[in-house]
Amino acid sequence: MVAKGYTTEELVEAELGNDITISTTPTTAQVAMWIEEAEAEIDERTQSSFTSASVTDAIVPYDEHSTFRSSFTNYGYSLRTDHNWTGTTDFVYLYDENGKKIAPILTITSLYRNKAGSNTQSDDWELLTENTGSGGDFFLDKLTGAITFTQNKPTFGLNRGIKWSGTYGHSTVPKDVQKLATKLVARRVLQMKAKSSQFSSIDSISLESISISKNISQTVMFIQSLESEIEVLFDRIIGAFASDLVV
Asked: How confident is the model at residue 100 (pLDDT cuts 50, 70, 90)?
């Protein structure tokens, strides 16, 4: 893995009020690894990326697992039919190359529909154009990563219905994401210190407005408090940034 820059060793040191070096517990190398793991956890739980990430020729199915019909009211039954999986569906979420739903979308450089009539036929890719007010084949909802077709839809049921390239994520790291990543790594640091037999000989820790003396029970209590803060931040970030995927 390569660090994305959600947080830094310096931010973790500022959070803990302690220096981290090649000879401390934990070491600079360990903290660098934990930063990458914290970033991966944030991306996984939010189904997003908080830096810009690229997608090249990602394949998206066009079937009951990925498509919905655009929202409208069926007056005959007074029911919404968003989840009516039929051949008239025109609304699909974008995936990355690993088959993971992603959002928000920053740019689409190309989007193709497969003109094949069934999964047994060879791929037949046709380049589509985005509708930006002057006609086109599809609309893009950048926030949710959803494509709504206006014409030239793939055949419903294709495992390889769409192929696209572009970028997703965020151009700058949001402050809540930076704070969350920093706290995730700070928690790992404290957990290691709590487990270390050298805990009684290390310096006291001052984290924001809370001070922790050389006392294991205080550290355990603070870790529990930190875990609550982490979950609150996750909930806030998911509510503000992550895609609303109901599949």
From this structure: confident
